[in-house]
Amino acid sequence: MMTTIILPVLTGLALFLFGMKLMETALQHWAGASLQLWLERFTRTPVHGLATGTVLTAVLQSSTAITVIAIGLVGAGVLTFPRTLGVILGANIGTCLTTELIGLSIGHLGVPLLLASSAVWLASWWAGPLPPQAQGTDASRSAHTDGGRGWLRSVRFGSLAVAGFALVLLGIEIMQTIGPALQTRGLFAWFVNQAKVSLLWGVIAGAAVTALVHSSAAVIAMAMGLASIQGIPVELGVAITIGANVGTCVTALIAGIGGTRASQYVAWSHILLNVGGAILFYPFMHQLVQISSMLAGGASEQIARAQTVFNVVSSLLALPFCYLKIWERLEFRN
Questions:
Q1: What angle do the packed helices 46-60 and 7-31 form, to 10 degrees?
Q2: Could you give the C-alpha distances from 147 to 37, 136, 157, 291, in angstroms and in order?
Q3: What residues contact 227, with CB distance under 8 A and at least 6 apart?
Q4: Cα distance between residue 129 and residue 119, in whole Å
Q5: Is the distance from CB of 147 to CB of 131 less than 8 angstroms?
Q6: Which of 33, 52, 54, 99 is the Cys-Cys partner for 94 at CB 3.0 to 4.6 Å?
């Protein structure tokens, strides 16, 4: 069990989480001070915030990062609480890009991508040091003040981001090797059978594991990997995915502790969106699986598509509530 299940899972999960963190850090360093500038400039209305949150999360590959940044900006008084509501909704949509890419079953490209991106990163050091990055409002003029070497920052951090994504793919490939061993274990078979009786087991498992590892993408990727080798049924994979969306709220809750009332509002709105979406979709789990099967072919692709449908529909249903005047009154009392 140690060599066939535990070691591959720990190794694959470590590579996955390291790759996600590397990709997230590289993209944040590339964005730099422009990130705060974009959030301040393009969140005038909830719709603008939704679009901005979607794009930034898709680029930075981390809904948690965008949510935590939004909480910090609200706590610092840079943004008001109503302006961040759309950002929270958009972050949930933007995070679907990760699972959609994983669902393409391109794990075999992990090693070539890692080698190529590493070569580009090493080559970028021969071009010299990075130009200083402009701060605050000067970020928009940095292209005119870096001596025409802004491309070097994009190449260096872009190659690191690609290397991180390659490690994500390698981690998934390693975790998928545990399928045959899991199928021979009575405990795993018992869990799958219990989940067939009630998919609530899958939702709880997804939420609990995500709360522990602080990465919904890692948990969803494991579910997609197991489903692709028929280790678990697609329905269970979708239930785990919805649970993972609930479990990811823990990070936002921690970020809001000790902050201002407005920052706590942001954290709780994130929790309400994900928990409310899970409660809304749970009775229609089988219909969600049927819709995803019509939109995708393989098991892993179906889970990725279900994740996208879940987040997009939940965010769009919640969007009209962002325009309620009550949020302005809450902000006034803060």
A1: 120
A2: 22, 19, 18, 52
A3: 233, 234, 236, 237, 299, 300, 302, 303
A4: 17
A5: yes
A6: 54
**What is the domain count for the chain?**
1
DSSP string computed for 121-140: HHHHGGG-PPPPPP-GGGGG
List the structure tokens of 238.
């979708």
Cα–Cα distance measured from residue 63 to residue 203, given in angstroms and rounded to the nearest whole number = 20
| Distance (Å, whole) CA 178 – CA 61 | 26
**Angstrom distance (rounded) from CA 26 to CA 166:** 14
Q: Are 206 and 242 in contact (CB under 8 A)?
A: yes
Tell me which residue has tokens 């279900």: 306
* Predicted structure pTM score: 0.70
Task: Work out the number of other CB atoms within 10 angstroms of the CB of residue 285.
Answer: 19
Residue 24's domain comprises: 2-333
- Distance (Å, rounded) from C-alpha 218 to C-alpha 168? 9
Q: Residue 75 corresponds to which tokens in the numbers above?
A: 């706590």
Nearest residue to 210 (alpha-carbon basis) of 242, 177, 255:
242
Compute the Cα dihedral for 316, 318, 321, 327 and give only its sign: negative
- Written as six digits, the tokens of 261 are 């009332």
192's CB contacts (< 8 A; 6+ apart) are 232, 233, 236
**pLDDT of 270-308, one tens digit each?**
888 889 999 999 999 999 999 999 988 888 889 999 999
Selection from 48-52, 153-157, 170-174, 181-185 with the highest mean pLDDT: 48-52
Torsion of CA 24, 28, 29, 33, to 10 degrees: -170
Identify the CA nearest to 216 among candidates 319, 111, 276, 304. Answer: 304
